[in-house]
Design a protein that fits this description.
- The structure is a single chain.
- The protein is an alpha+beta fold.
- It has helices at 22-32, 44-47, 52-75, 113-126; strands spanning 2-3, 34-35, 41-42, 77-83, 87-97, 100-107, 139-142, 147-148.
- It has 2 domains: 2-74, no CATH class; 76-148, no CATH class.
- It is 35% helix and 25% strand.
- A 5-stranded antiparallel beta sheet has the order 4-5-6-7-8, with no helix packed on it.
- Strand 4 and strand 5 (87-97) form a beta hairpin.
- Helix 1 (22-32) packs across helix 3 (52-75).
């Protein structure tokens, strides 16, 4: 069964779950569904048999993923300040995530929080998979000394 998002429900489709923005809807479908050869989202619960029980199961899974997705966004603490090394020309962006502090330098103008979150997510994805590369955008950071922590030292 093909799954899509939008502000209207076309004939032959049932609304399963609602979010605030199209970006959230697309991100949620990327997390929840596979894509077919045409690039359309396919719900695994509804691929074999389209029953109300399977529709409810898919809705419940979307709800759980959405809660996880919004929890991750709110649990990350972002702080921006002038870079102690470069002064006013750069912004030091620190992220506290899961009890660890990471940072990166950003040339001014300072980025928005949404842009920082997007860069963080891209950086985290880069470090996964069979060809995992170490992150170079956000690195471990010591706030008491205002220095990056050298890995392997």
């Amino acid at each position: 069964m093909i799954v899509r998002y939008g502000v209207t429900v076309p004939d032959g489709f049932l609304p399963v779950f609602s979010v605030n923005t199209a970006e959230e809807a697309e991100r949620l479908l990327i997390l929840a569904c596979r894509r077919n050869y045409d690039g359309q989202f396919v719900a695994p619960e509804l691929a074999q048999e389209q029953t109300l029980d399977n529709l409810w199961a898919f809705g419940d899974r979307l709800e759980g993923l959405y809660e996880t997705m919004t929890e991750k966004r709110t649990s990350m603490k972002i702080e921006m300040k002038p870079d102690p090394l470069y002064g006013k020309s750069h912004t030091l962006v620190t992220i506290e995530h899961r009890g660890r502090i990471y940072a990166t330098r950003w040339a001014n103008p300072a980025p928005s929080e949404d842009r920082v979150r997007e860069a963080w997510e891209q950086d985290r994805r880069r470090g996964r998979g069979p060809v995992a590369r170490r992150s170079r955008t956000f690195r471990p950071y010591n706030q008491s000394t205002d220095l990056f922590i050298v890995e392997g030292a």
